[in-house]
Amino acid sequence: MRAILLAGGLSLVFTLLGTRVAIGMLVKRGYGQLIRDDGPTTHHVKRGTPTMGGLVIILSSVVAYFAAKLLTGTTPSASALLLIFLFVGLGTVGFLDDYIKVAKQRSLGLRSKAKMIGQTIVGVIFAVLALSPVLADDRGRTPASLSVSFIRDLPGWELPMVLAVLLILVIIGGASNGVNLTDGLDGLAAGAAMMVFGAYTLVNIWQNNQSCRIQSGPSCYEVRDPLDLAVIAAAITGACFGVLWWNASPAKIYMGDTGSLSLGGAVAGFAILTRTEFLLLLLGGLFVLETLSVMLQVGFFKVSKGKRIFRMAPLHHHFELAGWAEITVTIRFWIIAGLFVAAGLGVFYAEWVAGA
Hints:
Elements: H1 2-29, H2 54-72, H3 78-104, H4 112-131, E1 147-149, E2 153-158, H5 161-182, H6 188-209, H7 226-247, H8 256-273, H9 280-283, H10 285-303, H11 315-321, H12 326-355
Antiparallel strand pairs: 1-2
Helix pairs in contact: 1-2, 1-7, 2-3, 2-7, 2-8, 3-4, 3-7, 3-8, 4-5, 5-8, 5-10, 6-7, 6-8, 6-12
């Protein structure tokens, strides 16, 4: 428990102080955000705001995690190291995207195909390692499972290795792109992600306290390293909390794809490693809504030959164009994200109570 508090606190301090330094460095190098011409006109004043702030989130979280492990004299687990790999790996893909944007001064960075290839390579490596028996603990538990899961592995839903890897890739792609789509208003994605990671901190603590290693039974959890996952979850929660000081409206820095892809990857990683894959649809409900709004908009546009459901997608831009102030949209979407997280935690706890 001490490691969890240390990781969260250190990460918060690192991002509060480190983001200020990053802003100065990025401004000096001219690494400013480019704005879509087809977006809300109110966003044009944001052109030139420093981007790639996700680097601070990644560095602060990783350094805080290892510092907490060092200070408590504990060894990093396979599950936490895999999650860090996914977190940093997708952040690297996002960084390349951001760097191309600022270097070539265009609103589009990596081609969609190149970005997908990068996400797929990182996802496949993560999936294969997470399912590998080489990383199984003394009880034979691998970091990830071949079974489909909701709050725990569903009986009779075990998949062949190839299909399990494909499912993991779908979850990673969906979560990373979902957070990326949500990252369109000052503080929106960072605040929503902070709630999700905070929820996973609680989920992991509960899974550790009710682990089958401690006491077997119908309601125990077969998760490989729940307590260590709670440490990295707390570190990322603290990082998101700290960066909001600078990312809240009016933002002094943006996370960029560096931040949104890494955070989305970490969200997916927690769902996979905690055996809560379908529960993620509820915990990350805001990200699901934003993604669905884009899918519906594109699909309806093609079917109806040019008509639209929303004024603009993702969904937050629809409400902006409807006349809502940006800060109003952000706060109301935070409330929606919080309700989804509360519902997800409620379902998680209710399942345990029913099983007990």
